[in-house]
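STRUCTURE:
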């Protein structure tokens, strides 16, 4: 057990809030300081591209804990500020006003930011990205004023905003550089499911496209010009081409980094007094037996319990399978596991693909289940996990047969 008395958490998202709660739940009675870049208390991000844009919730509904909780649990929250430097030798962090705070243990939960698109017009008025509550509020306001929206990128954020925009009555054109939406995440077969879904809902989905510029008049976006000179007029443009982990703080501090901040099974970095959680954590996963960095809500929700134990000197391992979900129109989906294009030998569909009520399984060359995605079927999550964790070969024909229980 640690005798440390001052813990600092750099970050103000879900992972940071859950880490503070986990420390208190483990009877840590020392000082906890959260350094939050935004002026809002930590909140969950999935609603920002889903229920908030559908008008069902507001960002305030997504706040993890209200201010009273932080007061009751003696957690100091510094809003609207960031950690600008970490001195591992003196175990201090620096804030923008050059003040310093000492720490015994430090957690990095700095999250990620939208990737920029290096094209003319990307910084014009009327060009949006989605990461923060303010972004979500601005997009919802745009829905009420715009008629035509161009979405650059057919990943999760791009497609969820597209579905919400169509619900609001906007004409939407989606531009994707790959052959199908979500190709990197799901592969061509399942990416086509989402292509069909959006086209059926009136989206002008254009794949294998290259954007040359966002056209601008009087400082405001007027549309998009493609590399083949095709012009697509618009009142607003959303750039949704992925996220970049905020690892600069870790790099400057001399921590080991790769695609993110390198952490072991316990979420400890190359400095035993520093952990990393959430989007930035590039973890050596004990079940998958490889490094993996996952930018999804489930990691931010579940990793903090392990990170808290590690900070307190307890033995802990983060071994949960990756999990994410999406809701688009009448399609609800959960994905469990991890399957890359290189690993996947085949995709087996169990159920009705046409009705979009099915489970898709990604199998390797030995017919072992790597991942499963249940679409509009809500009682299969545990069975999918068991098939993955069992690590045994399955009969693909039996797996596809709905008359045989999973």
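SEQUENCE:
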């Amino acid at each position: 057990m640690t005798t440390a008395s001052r813990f600092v958490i750099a970050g103000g998202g879900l992972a940071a809030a859950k880490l503070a709660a986990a420390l208190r739940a483990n009877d840590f009675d020392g000082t906890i300081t959260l350094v939050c870049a935004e002026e809002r208390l930590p909140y969950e991000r999935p609603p920002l591209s889903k229920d908030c844009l559908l008008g069902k919730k507001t960002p305030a509904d997504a706040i993890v804990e209200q201010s009273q909780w932080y007061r009751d649990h003696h957690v100091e929250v510094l809003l609207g500020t960031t950690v600008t430097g970490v001195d591992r030798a003196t175990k201090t962090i620096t804030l923008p006003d050059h003040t310093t705070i000492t720490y015994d243990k430090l957690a990095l939960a700095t999250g990620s930011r939208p990737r920029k698109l290096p094209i003319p017009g990307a910084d014009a008025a009327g060009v949006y990205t989605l990461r923060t509550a303010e972004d979500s509020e601005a997009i919802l306001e745009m829905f009420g004023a715009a008629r035509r929206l161009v979405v650059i990128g057919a990943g999760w954020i791009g497609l969820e905003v597209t579905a919400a925009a169509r619900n609001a009555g906007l004409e939407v054109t989606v531009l994707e550089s790959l052959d199908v939406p979500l190709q990197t995440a799901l592969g061509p077969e399942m990416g086509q499911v989402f292509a069909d879904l959006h086209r059926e809902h009136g989206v002008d989905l254009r794949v294998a496209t290259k954007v040359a510029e966002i056209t601008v008049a009087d400082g405001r976006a007027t549309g998009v010009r493609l590399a083949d000179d095709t012009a697509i007029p618009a009142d607003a443009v959303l750039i949704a081409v992925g996220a970049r982990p905020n690892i600069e703080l870790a790099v400057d501090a001399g921590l080991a980094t790769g695609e993110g901040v390198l952490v072991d099974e316990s979420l400890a970095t190359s400095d035993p007094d520093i952990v990393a959680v959430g989007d930035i954590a590039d973890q050596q996963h004990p079940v998958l037996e490889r490094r993996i960095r996952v930018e999804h809500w489930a990691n931010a929700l579940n990793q903090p319990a392990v990170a808290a134990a590690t900070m307190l000197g307890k033995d802990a391992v983060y071994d949960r399978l990756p999990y994410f979900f999406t809701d688009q129109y009448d399609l609800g989906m959960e994905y469990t596991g991890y399957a890359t294009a290189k690993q996947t030998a085949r995709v087996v569909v169990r159920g009705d693909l046409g009705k979009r009520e099915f489970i898709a399984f990604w199998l390797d060359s030995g017919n072992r289940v790597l991942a499963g995605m249940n679409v509009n079927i809500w009682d299969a999550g545990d069975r999918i996990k068991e098939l993955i964790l069992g690590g045994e070969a399955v009969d693909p024909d039996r797996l596809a047969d709905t008359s045989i229980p999973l």
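REMARK: The longest helix spans residues 183-200.
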